[in-house]
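Pasting as-is:
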Amino acid sequence: MKITKIVSGGQTGADRGGWEAAIYCSLPYGGWIPKECKSEDGLIPSKYQGLQETGSADYLARTEANVVDSDATLVFAYGTPTGGSKRTVEFAQKHKRPCLSVNLDEPRGQVVKQVVEWLKGISKPAQGVLNVAGSRASKSPGIESVVTARMVDVISAVNGRLFYPIQE
């Protein structure tokens, strides 16, 4: 599956890393966010455009909406997903959407290869909308830049357009 758009819920950390990779690679991005643009660091920064507010400030409402409205979901965490990341995986199972949990303790090249192979294996017709989710910054400091770097590598590989690799 080629990636044509990245969506996320706008939380600090992995979610914003997905958006930053999309911006870096000139891909459309967006997604469902909580009512009133809520995130753990206050409001989702206004530099992010084209987002849709759910009718609820509950994080799980936007989490489920992003799973439903995407073709596949990537969940980034150090180790096994917990909390909201675990719920994202559960929503993907509930709605029968492809989902891959990525352990960021693994080397960068191995993570990229795993994601690329998984995306190539998605057989159902897809528009290329990828939901990027995972740990928030308060639980995994520095995860935003790690996800951004890995997603730029993934986008380069699956879209066949080389983007200059970025540092974590």
